[in-house]
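User: Some background: our group keeps a shared notebook of sequences we're curious about, and every so often someone picks one and asks for a predicted structure to add to the entry. Today it's my turn. The entry only has the sequence so far, pasted here. Could you supply the structure so I can complete it?
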Amino acid sequence: MNKDYKLGSLVIMKKPHPCGKNEWEIVRLGIDIKIKCTNCGREIMIDRLEFEKKLKKVIGESNG
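Assistant: Of course. Here's the predicted structure to add to the notebook entry:
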């Protein structure tokens, strides 16, 4: 799968967050991955295999 993500990467997931945006920032990497919604700030933990299944594309790096 797509291994070009790292801490601070901005990613687009296949399904949008209930707030209406599907752009997320990776804030923790490990066995589990923590991603933060760039619109509402909600953070979720997701296991790496599930994250890689739901990842649509990596769009860049976070500016802050």
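Suggested note for the entry: The helical segments are 48-54. Residues 9-61 form a domain with the SH3 type barrels. fold (CATH 2.30.30).
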